[in-house]
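Thread: Newbie trying to understand structure tokens

Hi all, I'm a second-year student working on a class project, and my supervisor (Dr. K.) asked me to get a predicted structure for one chain before our next meeting. I've only ever worked with sequences, so writing a 3D structure as a token string is new to me. If someone could post the tokens and maybe explain what I'm looking at, I'd be very grateful. Here's the chain:
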Amino acid sequence: MPLPKRLISGFFPVSEIKVEDKKHHLIIIGFGVNGRNVARAARVAGIPYAIIEMNPETVRSEQAQGEPIYYGDSTQEAVLHHANIKDAKIVVAGINDPTATRRITEIIRRLNPKVCLIVRTRYLQEMKPLYELGADEVIPEEFETSVEIFTRVLTKYLIPRDEIESLVAEVRSDGYEMFRSLSKKPSSFADLKLQLPGVEISTLRVAERSPLVGKSLARIELRKKYGVTVLAIRRDKQILSNPDVNIPFCANDLLFILGPPDKVAKVAALTHNPEQLVNYHS
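---
Reply by user tm_fold:
Sure, no problem. This is what the structure looks like when written as tokens:
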């Protein structure tokens, strides 16, 4: 039977979900340790996100601090609709209730077949049913950590690898002892890697003092000298796919590079270290 709203939300009402204007955003279900660190990573990376939490006291206190957190039960379709699930890019479900997690997984996959759904579970035996219900990635608590969760989130958004590692170092410096090392296997473009063994796609940011600034692909000859291919360049909000060889690089460009890991590493050094200019001319 439906309960009175006051019995559900308490005697001090919290704000309702109003995120219809968000597009390609991240939805975080549950604001425990995992949810907090995913939100922190999203905030640092500039990714739009919304949090759904069942504890009204947590919602009130976090809203007062500026978090985009809302009270709601994610097992209810109406709550997910209000969070604009149809336009979300990624959902991270990090609650402790296995039954609720299964229902949330089934509902989300039905409401948005294209959204990337990352689910955290405490038990290994929950992995198979969650995958069968439509989860894209299931993170078992026994082996994974919230570092792995937000690393996968940032990788999906093509945040440069060095920036992700910098964020991980910052989180670890805060004393979260339960964090383990990053996954050795990159989580992005997994299907492509199956077809191209020994090749990876990486995202590199061109630093202001990089010797690449002002120089074109034709002049640098990345494919000839380094054995890598620039698939695309992101400049501000513009994506230059299959870029013209005469387009000069600019500071803060994001380069999507395809090539063997060791050769990509050499190009990564070139995007940051001004001393590499000597090697570039040699």
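A couple of things are worth pointing out once you decode it. The first strand starts at residue 26 and ends at 29. The two ends are 77 Å apart (CA to CA). Feel free to ask follow-ups in this thread.
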